[in-house]
């Protein structure tokens, strides 16, 4: 305590609480939370349900310059996809690749099994299905 002075009243020093300001902060926080939650739900749904997906089924090295690959494609109705397959040598360097256009009438209405043969520059020891893309889905799946 100081001599001759009284401790200032907190309301005089900092002002009175304004109830309207607290209400505005709560409402603004609720709006931001609803918008962020909506964006999170939309993002999870959009990225969790791609238009095209693919899965490698089998591959076979036919000779030192050819590989045969089979993979399954699942498409949304009316979607055309491009699927990329790469052949790799023992050093994991790409020695060949193929881009296969998969229309909606491939196999059945939603994709199906695709088998393709493509040339390589040297003997492949592995095959990588990079994935399928569509005009609205740029990330291969």
TrEMBL record:
Q: What is this protein called?
A: DUF4307 domain-containing protein
**Which InterPro entries does this entry report, sorted A to Z?**
DUF4307 (IPR025443)
Residue ranges crossing the lipid bilayer per the database entry: 24-45
| Record keywords, A-Z | Membrane, Transmembrane, Transmembrane helix
Organism superkingdom: Bacteria
UniProt organism field: Nocardioides imazamoxiresistens
